[in-house]
Predict the structure.
Amino acid sequence: MPKRILQGTVTSDANEQTVTVSVERRFTHPVLKKTIRKSKKYRAHDEKNAFKVGDTVRIIECAPKSKTKRWEVLEA
């Protein structure tokens, strides 16, 4: 199965080698037929602490790095 790649905005870089990325998705509500925006936060591994709050990054699925980290930063 291919690894998923998501794009989002860094919302926190407080932890060492970890960034929190907020990923937004848009879809049409099945009943209301209205476009809805939903966001979800992912914790991603950032080896060199290169990314700061506000950066747009792409993250890719990986093997678990810790209890909460299942993603790593691919690129900016």
Notes: The chain is about 0% helix and 55% strand. The chain has one domain: 5-75. Residues 17 and 47 are 5 Å apart (CA to CA).
